[in-house]
Write a structure and sequence with these properties.
By secondary structure, the protein is an alpha/beta fold. It has 2 domains: 30 residues; 162 residues, Rossmann fold, CATH 3.40.50.150. The protein is built from 11 helices and 7 strands.
Length: 251
C-alpha cells in the first residue's frame, strides 16, 4: 500500500535521526536513496523558507502538505494554476505537465525559476493577466489538479474558474486560495452548494474541492435556477412554481 506523505516525511526524519545517533558518515543508505521523492524534498525545503519568500506571499506549510497529498492521491499528470510560488515548485515535481498562468511583475516568477527544487522541464509558463491568457489557451489533456490563486479582485477569480473548471476531469481537484478575501469567499460559497463539487476540506485560507460525477453545468447557457446556491438562497421560490413546478428548489 502506498504510504501517505506524512508517513514518508516521518520515515525520512527518523532515518536521519538514526544516522546522526549512530554517527554514520558517507553515502546515504540504499533504503533512503530508494525512498527519495523530489516532491517531498521540495516540501521539506519550502517549510524552512521565510514567510515572504517572494513578494506575493507564500502558501503555508500545512496547505502545501495537503496539496502534495491530494495531488498524489488523484494521480496528477496534468495540472494548472493561476499565480506563482511554492505551489509551482511543488507541482513541478508531481505532475508530468504543469501550466502556470502568471504575470512578470514583482519577483515571484524569478524566484521560482531560480529555486533549486524547481523542475523546469515540466512547467509551461503563460505570461500575462490570466483574464487575457486563459481564454486563448488550449489544454491538450484534461486537468487533474487546478489551483486558483491569481488576481483576487472581482471578477478575476471567477473568470479563472470559468475558463478552468470545464477542463477538470471527474475525480480531479480544484483549489481556491484566499477564501478570507470576500470576492474569493463568494466563489467558495457558491461552489460548496454546487453538485459538480465535493467540498473536501479547508486548510488555513485554501479550499479543496473534488470534481464529482455530476454533469458539467452548461458554460454557455443560463439556467441559474438549477444551481444549488441559487436554489438555497433565492427569496422568491413560490413565484416560480408555475414555471418550474412544485418544490423545484428541492429537485
Amino acid at each position: 500500500m502506498t504510504r501517505s506523505i506524512t508517513e514518508r516525511i516521518a520515515g525520512r526524519m527518523r532515518r536521519i535521526a538514526e544516522r546522526a545517533t549512530q554517527g554514520q558518515a558517507g553515502d546515504a543508505p540504499a533504503e533512503a536513496i530508494a525512498d527519495a521523492n523530489p516532491a517531498v524534498e521540495a516540501l521539506d525545503w519550502a517549510r524552512t523558507q521565510p514567510g515572504w519568500w517572494h513578494d506575493s506571499g507564500n502558501l503555508g506549510a500545512p496547505v502545501l502538505e495537503r496539496i502534495l497529498h491530494h495531488a498524489e492521491r488523484v494521480g496528477t499528470r496534468c495540472s494548472a494554476e493561476t499565480g506563482c510560488g511554492f505551489s509551482t515548485i511543488l507541482l513541478s515535481n508531481v505532475a508530468d505537465r504543469h501550466t502556470c498562468f502568471t504575470v512578470a511583475m514583482g519577483n515571484s516568477l524569478e524566484r521560482v525559476q531560480d529555486a533549486h527544487h524547481f523542475n523546469r522541464d515540466r512547467v509551461n509558463f503563460v505570461i500575462g493577466p490570466s483574464q487575457l491568457t486563459l481564454p486563448r489557451h488550449s489544454f491538450q489533456d484534461p486537468l487533474d489538479f487546478v489551483l486558483i490563486d491569481g488576481t483576487h479582485g472581482f471578477p478575476f477569480a471567477h473568470l479563472d474558474y470559468y475558463f478552468l473548471h470545464p477542463q477538470i476531469r471527474r475525480g480531479g481537484m480544484l483549489l481556491i486560495d484566499d477564501i478570507h478575501i470576500p470576492t474569493c469567499g463568494q466563489l467558495y460559497e457558491v461552489l460548496k452548494e454546487d453538485k459538480m463539487w465535493r467540498h473536501v476540506e479547508d486548510v488555513l485560507f485554501t479550499a479543496f474541492f473534488e470534481r464529482t460525477d455530476a454533469p458539467l453545468f452548461d458554460p454557455h447557457g443560463d439556467n441559474w435556477f438549477m444551481q444549488g446556491f441559487n436554489k438555497k438562497h433565492f427569496a422568491y421560490k413560490e413565484s416560480l412554481v408555475s414555471a418550474l413546478g412544485e418544490k423545484w428548489w428541492e429537485k
